[in-house]
Amino acid sequence: MKIAIYHNDNDHSVEVLDELKTKILARDDADIIFDDAHPDIVISVGGDGTLLSAFHAYEQQLDHVRFIGVHTGHLGFYADWQDFELDDLVNSLVHDSKESVEYPIVQANLFFTDQTQRTILALNEIVIKRSFGTLSAIVDINGDYFERFRGDGLSIATPSGSTAYNKAVGGAVVSPSLEAMQLTEIGSINNRVFRTLGSPVILGASDVISVKAPDAETDSVQVAYDTLHFVSEQIEKIEFKIAPTKIKFAKYRHMNFWQRIQTSFIGPEEK
Ligand code: NAP
Ligand code: MN
């Protein structure tokens, strides 16, 4: 089995990285080699943000890579192994069950005014905004006119990303067992000209959300996806859909999504 360890640079992550490597190398019953270029397993050491970066570093290899997140800060959503559980983790690697849990990801196809195209993927969400002023956009669903948006921006989130930015802008938390993507409005202006639904919309596997700049208003649109972003003055249209590939996490133990939500956002019951 080939393993890559992806980490952030904070001191504790580097310590955990060293400790993890030492523990793996100490196991002579293990058939494990380190291979950053073509790994079977990518272990992210850091926070959820680190796992998002690891996802993008290996997004071309989603068909065979399985991810594992070790967190070195507070409890993460993707990074759900704790730094004191490394022995358990190494044991699971040695006796790899090959099982995985798959979560849906979103894809955006961007069409530029110079006729070029670009495809991006996101594990959490893709957010479009204008650098200054409001974003004005015509939203079609499955090829038909849906609404005319004006406001701060639009977010299209995955189920596992629904607890991140999406939640902060009033979106629902969605189980990653559902093949879904969620469109949420960020600061929409509603009047007789700009009329939007006003509530988050959850769409399914065959749905396509298309966002077009009305008229010639293509100036400086900011596209933020997970930990990445770029600005372009030439975006004509963006089509969002659930990507054909999913992210795989190594399933070495039961990952309880709802328990993670409970611990992160609510905490123990007051007696
Ligand atoms: P960051 O500023 O460190 O991320 C913001 C927080 O979101 C961090 O606490 C991060 O956890 C957490 N987070 C990331 N993915 C999550 C998920 N799926 N569920 C719940 N919390 C999650 O920036 P970053 O580390 O580069 O992460 C990028 C993400 O930040 C974006 O994908 C977006 O979702 C989120 N974000 C949120 C807001 C907002 O809520 N207003 C604004 C901008 C970006 P860690 O500390 O473990 O990394
Ligand atoms: Mn972060």
From TrEMBL:
Pfam families: NAD_kinase, NAD_kinase_C. GO terms for biological process: NAD+ metabolic process; NADP+ biosynthetic process. Keywords: ATP-binding, Cytoplasm, Kinase, NAD, NADP, Nucleotide-binding, Transferase. NAD(+) binds at residues 48-49, 124-125, 150, 152. Its EC number is 2.7.1.23. One of its GO terms (cellular component) is cytoplasm. It catalyses: NAD(+) + ATP = ADP + NADP(+) + H(+). It is found in: Cytoplasm. GO terms for molecular function: ATP binding; metal ion binding; NAD binding; NAD+ kinase activity. The active site is at residue 48. InterPro entries: ATP-NAD_kinase_N, ATP-NAD_kinase_PpnK-typ_C, NAD/diacylglycerol_kinase_sf, NADK. Its cofactor is a divalent metal cation. It is an enzyme of class 2 (transferase). Its main location: cytoplasm. HAMAP family: NAD_kinase. NCBIfam families: PRK04885.1. Involved in the regulation of the intracellular balance of NAD and NADP, and is a key enzyme in the biosynthesis of NADP. Catalyzes specifically the phosphorylation on 2'-hydroxyl of the adenosine moiety of NAD to yield NADP. Belongs to the NAD kinase family. This is NAD kinase. It comes from Weissella viridescens. The lineage of its organism: Bacteria, Bacillati, Bacillota, Bacilli, Lactobacillales.
